[in-house]
Records
---
Amino acid sequence: MKLDSEESCLETDEPPGCEGKSEKWNDWRWQLRNSITDPKKLNEVFKFSPSELEKLEKVILKYPFGITPYYFSLIDISNPQDPIKLQCLPNPEEDNLYFDVQEDPLDEERDSVLPGLVHRYPDRALLTLTDMCPVYCRHCTRKREWQKGKWTRSEAELKEVYNYISLHDKVRDVIISGGDPLILSTNKIESVLSNLRSIPHVEIIRIGTRCPVVLPQRIDDELVSVLKEYRPIWLNTHFNHPNEITPESSKACDRLVCAGIPVNNQSVLLRGINDDITVMTKLCQGLLKIGVRPYYLFQCDPISGTGHLRTSIEKGLEIIKGMRGFTSGLCVPTFVVDGLKGQGKVPLQPLDYVVALEKDYAVLKGYKGEVFRYYNPESINENRHNVQFKG
Ligand SMILES: *Cc1c(COP(=O)(O)O)cnc(C)c1O
Ligand code: SF4
């Protein structure tokens, strides 16, 4: 079952940048075992002041951290505003209070039909397998889970989930999420996939994972050959900044794409990290180059402990407007706000493309800002119909 290099259409050589890295470095279990979880380790590198260290230690009691050596190696230590650092290093600002933030503003708990299964939309269900992740993103929507200790769904809970999905034949798309489901053993993943695949009305399986970005070593031959068995599988990953596109992450995505698993990306709009037209354009163009399609750009949800990373909604609209027409349409993600209390995802478009919808004409504004009239054929048909009717 193992993919040979011909079948996976990959070079067997190490990609540039990986040369000389030890075998251990390329082993995802080594990366996890050696994750940085001790603030003293951070202090050795960043040399915090005693009061900074004290604040940090307080924050991580509430919101623990963990950073793979690989992801940590992408930080430019000399840059205090490094975009990788801002995503993974705990920050005293996580303690700030904002009037609108909550633990679970999207009401995922209320929309959970069973432990681990959110069934909010008619034809798709979201299955959370664990709350563990290779890197704990400071902007995480499920930050509330981190205070519950490390958990993984039990076999008994999963049985209930499979049973529920079997009984609900409208569910044709199951999203396996977390935490990061790919942190689990390949055997456990295979068991979940084979159970879901045995349900006839489950047409597609999606996997939401940040492994290609923060632990690309996880996308190894063994895992890819398992995923390949259970296609159609769509993998959604989570790149936020062009600095995350490295030889290692590119290779991880290439492996998946070569095995017939389309990779899409869901970014979160983050203050000081990617809230900029140039940065977002570079990210999305870079993703296309490694075979990854930008899918969603999310407004950062109002989650306790993430307030300092949010931007205005206008910022997201400005970025979409600055991309549409100026670069490949394939590059442009859909900007989405996830509505509070289970209202679901709301796509937002810049408002000014449609200037007016008049009788027979639409008045539109192009990406260059010029306003023009465009015949509206439906209205014309209606007129013709009216003429015939009268005649
Ligand atoms: C985002 C989400 C989905 C999937 O939404 P798509 O728009 O199909 O990508 C499904 N269920 C829940 C609960 C979600 O939050
Ligand atoms: S990988 Fe996803 S689930 Fe895990 S911490 Fe990051 S945002 Fe949260």
---
Amino acid sequence: MGSENNNFKQRQFATKLIHFGKEIDPATGASSTPIYQASTFHQADVDANQEYDYTRSGNPTRQALEDYITLLEGGTRGFAFASGMAAISAAFMLLSAGDHVICTEDVYGGTYRLLSTIMTRMNVETTFVDMTDLDKVKAALKPNTKAVFLETPSNPTLKITDIAAVTTWAKEHDLLTMLDNTFMTPYHQRPIELGVDIVLHSATKFLGGHSDVTAGLAVVANDSLSRRMKQVQNGLGTILGVSDSWLLMRGMKTLQTRMEAHEVSANRLASWLSAHPGVEHVYYPGLEFHPGRAIHEKQSRGYGAVVSFDVGSGERAKQVLAKVQIPLVAVSLGAVESILSYPAMMSHAAMPREVRLERGITDGLIRYSVGLEHIDDLLEDLEQALQG
Ligand SMILES: *Cc1c(COP(=O)(O)O)cnc(C)c1O
């Protein structure tokens, strides 16, 4: 049990979720990691190099979470931040003024905002490209390119990027690769195994899983990045608090069970929507006709819980959102409850309409994060919302 047994790295993912080495308090045998609600640590001998001295620099509860996500992603070291955007910002702080980034064009809205309005002031410039086409990625290379940022499946149209193809090319040019793995989680997709240097998460979504904690995680793939990222985390100070670290671990223990149940229902919902006369298009990597399906299957073990669909017009989309009774209508995803969001007026509201339409984010597009309710109830509810 616990950390005395070091073969936990060899075990199946479901077992790692429960037995990750720090699941038992070594001091008392308590069945969960204690919440070390302390900002500082008494140094009885100031000459001794003790492990913890100040919580921004390190705290045993946060450390347990950081080791946990490192084990799940198969990386070298993990870092917990106050939000997904704090984790993503920290990763970009590894860059310097004058550097250039290549980023997937349908990246999460917050990442787009960071790169296009804040990093630009630090003189870090970004080219946004359609990463489903490797030639477009290659064409964006400049003498000062230092990093490539991937997000696959993308949001909300679930476009697929070939991770290994991009990392293989990036290594030839000494580029740092970062991937936002929020939609898949390490249960479905482990980017470090495909050559990615830094995996990022909004743990607010599936990892937390209960819409009750805001958190971000980063996992790096080698020692040199471990040292650099530690310096950034400690220097910026955007750490995750200890209570939220504990709450996040509490949620993560059921990740596999939740993801499996989410996916069964998401598959049902996607096929049901595809056959529905009131729906013009369905986006889900598990569908036969999804353009990125073969690549997705090569690099991921599942299709996830997010299904997007087009009901034809903004008016119809608003009607559906007004009439559904079970899902939360909200920004966010990945929770035990189903969540419907309306990209045109929520996540992508800041995007110019022409750009939005060009990227398939039409006025009729709705994103459904399928929760753990009974699928028959979800379908019946959506049916009554689509009629009318
Ligand atoms: C929500 C989200 C983020 C940002 O995470 P926060 O925890 O809200 O800061 C980043 N990437 C993706 C894909 C997300 O869905």
